[in-house]
Design brief:
- There is one protein chain.
- It is globular, with a radius of gyration of 19 Å.
- A hairpin with a 2-residue loop joins strand 10 and strand 11.
- Helix 1 crosses helix 2.
- The strands form five sheets. The chain has a nine-stranded mixed β-sheet with strand order 1-5-19-7-16-21-22-24-23. Strands 2, 4, 6, 12, 14, 15, 17 and 18 form an eight-stranded mixed β-sheet that branches.
- By secondary structure, it is mainly β.
- The protein has two domains: 195 residues, Acetamidase/Formamidase-like domains (Jelly Rolls, Sandwich), CATH 2.60.120.580; 79 residues, Roll (Endonuclease I-creI), CATH 3.10.28.20.
- The protein contains two helices and 25 strands.
- The chain binds calcium ion and zinc ion.
- The site of zinc ion (ZN) has 6 residues, from strand 17.
């Protein structure tokens, strides 16, 4: 079955209390219409950053109740396609981004974009449409859509594109999947606090893995499996991603810690997702020659 969820159904917190706006079964395809990360509040370069309502950031469309999903399961979200709007924007906000210590002003830049190319003034950049915010409801907390965690959220992972599968640990009945904050293109780090922020639609298929979960959200594409770890500091995030990668190599290759640690030095790539959200995000990418998704599932 194909379900469509309109962008009139927006949440600003991932919460077990959110009322589902649609239900879907494993195997169903869902089309999510999404709004941009500032809820359409930016229309042109003269708009005022100080007028922005920061309570309406990273709005996610949903949530969708997935039939049969229960705490302890894993929701597999297969991204089939991402269609983006032909406009995007960037902002600088004083006190934010990697260079938050420097003095600079707030600025808005509008970009023309397509699935293929994003124009930044006269420069042309290859587009890479991706999902910034996607998650399920946490067990008890209400987590703002601008934050991230084990439930997913504002992970800003540049490789979360069409053709990838995202595995999210389910904490509540029905999982309550929601997503938004599309980017036409973003580099690792998201330096200035924003990417090429845009709206659009995401076409995906949901499936369930019953009774088993990874410790962190996991992304799989054709070549690699990536642990999407996070921490209050980049060091914490790096350590968490590395520990889980080495543990998994121990299981998949039946190695001692020391041997797995050494193999990790050769084949695990640590990469930055973003450095500008409330928690910092790191991914450990492991080639599929050495691990399979099942190795990441704890019993
Ligand atoms: Ca974001
Ligand atoms: Zn964004």
């Amino acid at each position: 079955m194909i379900k469509r969820v309109s962008k009139t159904n927006i949440i600003y917190k991932f919460s077990p209390k959110n009322k589902p706006v649609e239900t879907a079964s494993p195997g169903d395809i869902i089309i999510f219409e999404t709004i941009d990360c500032l809820s359409g509040q930016i229309k042109n370069e003269d708009d005022s950053i100080s007028a922005i309502d920061w309570n309406r950031v990273n709005g996610a469309t949903g949530p969708i109740y997935i039939k049969g999903a229960e705490p302890g399961d894993t929701l597999a979200v297969e991204i089939l396609d991402i269609n983006i709007d032909d406009n995007a924007f960037l902002v600088t906000v004083p006190g934010h981004g990697v260079l938050s210590n420097l003095k600079f002003s707030s600025k808005i830049k509008m970009l023309k974009t397509s699935k293929y190319t994003t124009s930044f003034s006269s420069l042309r950049i290859k587009s890479n449409p991706m999902i910034g915010t996607i998650g399920v409801a946490p067990a008890y907390d209400e987590i703002p859509c601008g934050d991230l965690g084990r439930h997913g959220g504002n992970m800003d992972v540049p490789i979360l594109t069409a053709g990838s599968i995202l595995y999210l640990p389910v904490s509540v009945k029905g999982a309550l999947l929601a997503l938004g904050d599309l980017h036409a293109v973003q580099a690792d780090g998201e330096l200035c606090v924003s990417a090429a922020e845009t709206s659009g639609e995401v076409i995906l298929r949901v499936n369930l893995i019953k009774g088993r979960q990874p410790k962190f959200p996991i992304l799989e594409n054709r070549d690699i499996i990536a642990i999407l770890a996070f921490g209050n500091t980049i060091d914490d995030a790096i350590r968490a991603a590395t520990e889980y990668a080495i543990e998994t190599l121990m299981v998949s290759q039946k190695l001692s810690f020391e041997e797995a640690y050494m193999l990790g030095s050769l084949v695990v790539n640590l990469r930055i997702n973003q450095l500008v959200d409330p928690k910092k995000g790191v991914r450990a990418e492991i080639p599929k020659d050495f691990v399979k998704f099942e190795d990441f599932l704890t019993v």
